[in-house]
Amino acid sequence: MAFKVFVDGQEGTTGLRLLDYLSGRTDVELLRIDEDKRKDPAERARFLNAADVAFLCLPDVASREAMTLVTNPTTCVIDASTAFRTSNDWVYGLPELARGHREKIRASKRIAVPGCHASAFVLAVRPLVDAGVMQPDYPVTAFSLTGYSGGGKKMIAEFEAGGNPRLDSPRSYALGLEHKHLPEMRVQTGLAQAPIFSPIVGKFYKGLAVTVPVYPDRLARKVSPEQIADIYRKHYEGEQFVRVMPVASDDNLDDGFFDVQANNDTNRVDLFVFGSAERMVLMARLDNLGKGAAGAAVQCMNVVVGADEATGLNA
Predict the structure, then answer these.
(1) Which of 36, 58, 118, 211 has a beta carbon 3.0–4.6 Å from 62's, enabling a disulfide?
(2) pLDDT tens digits for 200-243?
(3) Partners of 53 in the beta sheet?
(4) Which of 96, 98, 92, 94 is nearest to 111 (CA)?
């Protein structure tokens, strides 16, 4: 029997990608609101409450407003905004976060999907904090290189219009150091303070890699790159969407360069440890529209409805 799914905000970048994932599934009945009623509160409420699973692909304010329309206690809401990612009433939508977290997602009717930068950062840092290797007060810094699709319709249009030489080179942004993903990056890793985080957008559609520099002798205990990789392997044992890449392998690079787009069109995260016993960088790579957004939402839905977790997703 098919379960009913409604996407509120289906015209946005994440909403459209969600529909791509869901449209071919025989176990899903997609509820489609008429175009001229997309902003009608009564009609939206009708669809939200008729759904077994409702995805919110909306700005923060609109997501909060949408939640006032949900009165059906059996509707599971999976929100893709930043509105609820650190709320105690919502479960963070990252099944691989920690042992037992998948069960929390399965039992919840309120799931907040992580941000793209945050997903990569949390997956790289949380295992070290849990293992007691990175102390909560360690002064973490990170940067992220991402494709322009992460900026939504306006940014996509700007890049794809062409003719603007200012967009030819990578562009750092959020230099006020108040990026909207910072609260979840702190809370979901167990850090005492948010990292100094600098995102960079490049002239490519999608793909993302977060890099975290680490001085091993300033951790709670000194570890080698291989020991950090072992911590990752233990933490993510059995996880089909997380790959811990071999340390010091030539296969990790493309003629000496790191390929930020290698996980595009998958729901996979690759974790790397580069460097030496004196200094190293941790890197997490994913598709910012896949595991960093719509793919993660579908994965959470699969957990909730009891489907195989990889249904509709490319590992």
Answers:
(1) 58
(2) 999 999 999 999 999 999 999 999 999 999 999 999 999 999 99
(3) 5, 76
(4) 92
Between CA 83 and CA 60 the distance in angstroms is 5
Residue 154 CA to residue 149 CA, distance in Å, equals 9
300 belongs to the catalytic site: no
**Where are any strands of DSSP class E within the chain?**
3-8, 28-31, 53-56, 76-79, 91-92, 110-112, 141-147, 171-172, 196-202, 208-214, 242-244, 269-275, 280-286
Asked if 127 and 184 count as a contact pair (C-beta separation under 8 A), the reply is no
Residue 171's identity, in one-letter code, is R
HSE (side-chain half, CA atoms, 13 Å) at 35: 1
Six token digits for residue 173: 């942004």
| Residue in the structure block whose two tokens are 């990175």 | 134
Q: 0.85 cut: is pTM over it?
A: yes
Write down the catalytic residue from 57, 76, 116, 300: 116
81 and 34 Cβ atoms separated by less than 8 Å = no
Handedness of CA 216, 220, 224, 227 (dihedral sign): negative
Instruction: Say how many residues make up the chain.
Output: 315
In the sheet with 3-8, reading across from the earlier edge strand, the strands are 28-31, 3-8, 53-56, 76-79, 110-112, 91-92
DSSP, res 35: G
Q: Are 119 and 92 in contact (CB under 8 A)?
A: no
Q: Using one digit for the tens of pLDDT, what is the confidence trace for 262-310?
A: 999 999 999 999 999 999 999 999 999 999 999 999 999 999 999 999 9
* Token pair 């091993």: residue: 216
Q: How far apart are CA 69 and CA 51, in angstroms?
A: 13
Report the distance separating Cα 242 and Cα 233, nearest Å. 9
